[in-house]
Amino acid sequence: MKKLIILLFLIPIGLKAQDNPLTIFNSLENYTWTAEGKWGDGSTFKQEINLEFSLDNKIVKVESMGFTNREQTEFGLRNHGIRQYDEKLKKIRFWEFDIFGNLTEGTVEGEGKNLIYKYDYGGTFVTEMWVYKNEKTYDFIVGVYENGEWKQKFLETEFIGTLK
Question: Is Signal one of the keywords (predicted)?
Answer without folding.
Answer: yes
